[in-house]
Amino acid sequence: MKKMAEFTIRFKGAVLVLFIILLAVSGFFATKVKTNYDIFSYVPKEAASTKAVDAMLEEFEQAIPNVEIGVHVQSISDALKVKKTFEELPYVSEVLWLDDQVDLATPLDLLDQKVVDGFYRDGMALFHATVDEDSQAIDIVAELQEMAGPEGAVRGQIVELANMQRGVTVEVGRIAAIAVPIAFVILLIATQSWFEPVLFMVAILVGVVLNMGSNVIFDDVSFITQAVAAILQLAVSMDYAIFLLHRFGDYRKEGHSIEEAMKRAIVKSFSPISSSALTTFFGFLTLIFMRFRVGPDMGIVLAKGIVFSLFSVFFLLPVLTVFTYKIIDRTTHRSLLPSFKWFSRLVVRIGIPVLIIAALVAVPAYMGQRSNDFLYGAQTFPKGSREARDFDRLNQQFGENVQMVLLVPKGEWATEEKLAEDLLDLDEMKSVVGYVTQVGTGVPHDLLPDRVLSQLISDHYSRMILIAKSPAESPETYELAEKVRDMVDQAYPEGETHLAGANFVLLDMRTTINQDLIIVNGLAILAIALVIMIAFRSLALPLLLVFTIELSIWINLAIPYLTQAPLNFIGYLIVSTVQLGATVDYGILMAQHYLDHRQLLNRKDATKKTIQTVAGSIIPPALILAAAGFTLSAISSISVVSELGLVLGRGALISLAMVLFLLPNLLRLFDRFIEKTTWKLTMKPDRHTYRRKSGDQLLEQINLER
Q: Which CA distances in Å does 166 have to 59, 143, 629?
């Protein structure tokens, strides 16, 4: 480390130029990173729904209908004209309406009213269209809304996609515009120079840009990663910069020159900063073991961000500080933080009640966070928006619909016809469109035009489109998916069938993510515990630190259960890992200072001194992380991102409270256990350890202390 520090300071001009070049290049490449807005595409390749989509795209040009358009019409003939207008749009490949279900030459009153009401009701025609998702969803939705008119309505996956695109392209900048100034204000209060926060922000923001630019090596990144990675990297790595400059200030007070003080600061702070970063790094990296591939997507980007933040802190920040130390000196002010002496006395005084409460809360909190009602999709719209209004309007008039595509072996017409009849008999089923329902088994294939035949039959499969009345996500959604799968499996016991649709994907997502939970959380805990064990050479400290943060996570994630609010499972799984990796740093700092103070003080005084010296260092980064989370929650219109921010912000505050109130008392309570299980650790004896000594040893110790 001495050589690295020497090199950095000696060639500070070249280092600064290098970072300027890297910043420009990374900023350019950051604009070239593609964003994947299709959350369903992250379901494992071996999942049945993924295989179904692959088979459908290979055999047919048409995909699953992904948008519903409700238009007020005067008559059936007007509705058919509107349908033709939609079919002529360049990005629309297929439009389904009532004329695809029944013969409109028959009076509507004589037709199956369940079918009619699913497509035409109270003067509104509901069209199911398939739109090319590679197109710009925001522009498509705007055009469809204009065509539907102010009294019409548009909903579906393409609308959700447009909302996510808008959320990432527009709201990310707005989130940064709010979160960064808040972080800056927190840093102003936490430091003793008005200029130091500028250096912190520049160093970490450069690391963020380097990380975003390096994402160009991937084919794309998920919209969740794109929305939260930058702000999370900023929030969780700011304390690295704070710690380095604090060390620099300490060495300057000892009388060292500017360059020598910085060299010593780099060397001295490298080990604790690296240990702290490693816990966060491995916490993020464990997400790569998720089979639901949003986890690896986010885990790699966040873990990579920690590396770039360290790179920036150890190379760019020292250079900037050496160049601008005169400004730091001219803008120095007295500390705005309190001494925390009164707070340390309070924490020690209430230690026993805190420990009792923690013991009583642990099991219920664990059970509560495992009993949440989970959501697996991302369907939500800003209150008061056109999208929210359209969604509610179509729900009231037609109910909630789910579109599915069924592929069955070609040529088994009798089986297919019987299955179609059985499916249509389901109370939830509104429509079954396929070869046997549209054409009939008595019509030779050769008599049909290719335009019609290509939509219904391929070389290997016969295609049916199913439209059912079902909520977007609920127990009924999964029940319907399982019911349809069972019916298809009974009709075709030899397999070779495929079912695609949002409800089947959600079913597979639920199965996959539930399996990921134990693996990812277990690996995160194990990895972080090993890092702590190696750093402290202790068996007890990993247990105490991980328990403190895990209890914080359990309490955080039990709150939705207590409030009966459904929780998005993606947010649940990611937050449980991110909160552990991001906030265990506070515990590490607390434990390190406690061990240092116990060399000279008894356990009670060491606890007070530790709180006094650590509180001012861990409160600012925790508040920055909380502010970043709450900003995401308040600004983002994407439900997964908003909920992720809320839970993360709340979790940062809970972790901070647990580290400040619970952990010091745990360290004091298990003081003797820590000493016995930590390699080459000898603490100053206090009155509690005297009781374990013999009478002669006790008298000798008392005389020595006198």
A: 33, 15, 19
Listed in sequence order, the DSSP H helices in 88-129 are 113-119
All structural domains of the chain? 1-32+191-336 (1.20.1640.10), 66-162 (3.30.70), 342-371+538-679 (1.20.1640.10), 388-506 (3.30.70.920)
DSSP string for 652-671? HHHHHHHHHHHHHHHHHHTH
Considering the chain, what is the average pLDDT of its residues? 86
| Interval 249-297: pLDDT, tens | 889 988 899 999 999 999 988 888 888 888 889 888 888 888 888 889 9
Q: Quick one: pLDDT band at residue 211, thresholds 50, 70, 90?
A: very high
> Is residue 646 within 8 Å of 629, Cβ to Cβ?
yes
Burial class (CB in 10 A: 0-12, 13-18, 19+), 485: middle
End-to-end alpha-carbon separation of the chain, Å? 43
- pTM, full prediction: 0.83
Q: Tell me the average pLDDT across 191-206.
A: 92
Task: Look up residue 161 and give its two tokens.
Answer: 């996609």
Distance CA 145, CA 67 (A): 11
The Cα 213–Cα 362 span in angstroms is 42
Place of tokens 């269209």: 129
Dist. CA 330–CA 313, nearest whole Å: 23
Q: Are 71 and 152 in contact (CB under 8 A)?
A: yes
